[in-house]
Fold this protein.
Amino acid sequence: MAAVRAGDTDALDTLLQRHYDALHRLCRRMCGNDADADDATQEALLAVVRGLTSFDGRAAFTTWAHRVTVNACLDELRRRGRRPGPSDQTGLDSGPGALHVVGDPEPGETVALRLDLDAALARLAPEVRAVVVLRDVGGHDYAAIAVMLGIPIGTVRSRISRGRSRLAELLGNLSPSPERPTP
Amino acid sequence: MSAAHHHLDDETLNAVLDGEATDDHRVDASGCPECAARLARLGHVATALGAPVSPSDADRRRAAIAAAVAAHDAGVTAPPPLHLRRRRRVSPGWAAAAAVVLAGALAVPLVDGLGGNDEGREAATAGDRDITAAGGSVDEEGALADQQATPEASGGGNQLGEIDLADLDELAATIDRDRPSRDTPAAARSEAVRPYEQAADPVCEEVARQRDPSLQALAFAAQGSVTGRPAVVLAFEVTAPGTPSTIRLLVLAQDNCTELGTASAE
């Protein structure tokens, strides 16, 4: 980082190469399709570069870059005034006609699951999606997410719960028992 | 009758899942089959979200990083221009064939015009050799005589050989003079410039555009070398308010798009 901040172009290139895939993964989940994710990642890289002078090194670069990236995605989504594009047309519904994947879901198991995930994520409010993505894609703990987004830790907790529960509801195959026993 | 068992709510279960719950809640969750089942379902969601995604397009990845590095070098603080967004891709094969045709149309008269001094003449000689390899020949007015040049005959396409940076102004003026914007019907001009909608080296083209948002249509693109270093030559149309468009020529190092030279047609 010292070399990057000193203006070493090669060091910056190496740094961006190292983090690109992780940032793209965040953008992919935030944006819901490959094309928007590529655009958002581009925006995020430029935001990272522009923000390097303000990066004080108190947080890990990864944490800081993830924050910048998710904010870039939120900006992108706001600019476009809509939620993720292509997945909006998948017709995902939590009703009887919902798209479901048969069998036990495994990470990256089927295209159908991925499509369901994109469509389901699109149903979440961007601020809820951001928290869930930072947790499940970025791997950050609640306290870090709270700092990254400037929200109370209780809000992080409730948004993660709201987001995951909604996703479980939308991805019906992941929650085959819709009713929980009443105490 | 025993007291009703109170299941943990989703917020607590998610906290358990994320290692953010108290020990008591963890014990409660593991001791309650219903809670454990719900926890497993939420865990499936979290696992699915964390699954790998399809990798980014390699060209797009490279272009994004190069543009960010260039922005850093240039101290650019403005938002990225729209042309960094999805650009129509030109079929490499078709673009190469088209580039060969326009190489004859533009580069040969360009080389002819590089006779101002000995250094320029050396550059012209090198360029002439490569253009000859491209298979085009030019009449006295610089018109393309053989428009049937093929990629196979090009020896690699639109090559200028060694480029003399001292002659860039003349190079820019020549491209400006010979580009099809002058006295060319709109339809024919559109056909002529199409090969350069994206340069043979789109990364350097995008980096150049990132550095200078005033760059417009790409009027000419070629490869060559500067003192042996592989380079890309890009000529863009630029338009100032109230004036006709002109040409800005850039010579960029092919490996990292560093600017080696620049010139503008006056």
Observations:
- Residues 238 and 246 of chain B are 5 Å apart (CA to CA).
- Chain B touches chain A through 51 residues (CB under 8 Å).
- The two ends of chain B are 97 Å apart (CA to CA).
- DSSP finds ten helices and five strands in chain B.
